[in-house]
Amino acid sequence: MSTALKVAIVGSGWGVRVQLPTFEKAGWKVGAIWVRSEDKVAELRKTIDAARVPLVTHDYDAILDDSSIDLISIVTPPGAHKEMASRALQKRKHVLCDKPTALSADEALQMARVAREHPSQLSLIDHELRFLSKYQRIREMLSTGKLGQLRHIEVSVQYRPQPNQTWNWWQDKTQGGGLLGAIGSHYVDLISFITGSRIASTTGMVETLFPTLPDAKTGEPRACTADHYSSFQFRLESGVFGVIHLTLAPHQAPNHKVTFVGSEATAVMEQLELTVTNAAGVVEKGAEPFAPEPVQQHVWAIGTYHYGEHLHKIVSSLKEQAAAAVANSANSLIPTAATFEDGLYTQTVLDAVRKSTETKAWEQVKVPK
Prior knowledge:
The protein is α/β, with parallel strands linked by helices and 369 residues long. It contains 9 helices and 18 strands. The chain has helices spanning 14-25, 38-45, 60-64, 81-90, 105-116, 133-144, 179-195, 299-320, 340-359; strands at residues 6-10, 29-34, 55-57, 71-74, 94-97, 123-125, 150-158, 199-207, 212-214, 221-223, 229-236, 241-247, 255-262, 265-270, 273-278, 283-287, 338-339, 363-364. A 9-stranded mixed sheet has the order 16-15-14-13-7-12-11-8-18. It has a 7-stranded mixed sheet with strand order 3-2-1-4-5-6-17, with helices on both faces. Helix 1 (14-25) packs across helix 8, helix 4 (81-90) runs parallel beside helix 5 and helix 7 packs across helix 9. The chain starts with 5 loop residues before the first strand and ends in a 5-residue tail after the last strand.
């Protein structure tokens, strides 16, 4: 009887709320959860027993040294990504790292260099939108010419302020907080995945909308330094231009809308619904299929479920092969996924948008080597 594949989740927020039940449904055994303190260990153990997750710890070495762990999913604040991901790869673990890749392109480059030294290990970024079938459909329509010549791209994402919101790391730019990194990184990556062309230059801005938020423990106001708003134009290497607009200010329901305007048809993905309208006004509609319960039915969780399924298949295959058989690149076995190299590119774009906020000029996107 084969042993179940095990994933360790590093982080107690998104990792526990979404990845834990979603990876389980995708076939994984969650072998460990890392949290930042002993108090968090006790808190999690109130709802997650040892039969479900054998190890809950704040000792990262205990996870790295556990030979039964096949994949480490890092969902900490971005400031910890470089060290945790690099150490995991050096311990011969497969790694799935949350976005944004790191705090800067320099840190992302260091991560990519470690990944290059360990080609037999998966080194992937958690850009789960790539795994939604409707975005893959748009990619297909572009490549086959159904949309015609791509003219421009528009992305609009809005979330509303949470009632009684308190300060956390997400409000601190020194820890990698903010909307540009958390959400903007997804769409920068998605555009390159769908079009096959990367952003070559950009101009825009980021803005902090809420000067302070109350501390969760003391109630005292704490300064917010991360961005709650970002809007930037871009031009792809192919010459196609577009805009990405992100905001946390509106009070209406959250919404994600991505538009690819072609000469023959326009594809619009709004939440989970794809609408394609051609020049004659003929409309094609289709919704992203829901994932099985208990997976939450939103774009991020559904994408995570499909990503988890693919990872399970690939890691299982890798375990059955000799290391020499995948010495060239384990990442090549899951071409839909974003790699650390893709994460380096995305981080470089984010840095250019932030620089443009200061220079008020178009910035070239030069990915470091």
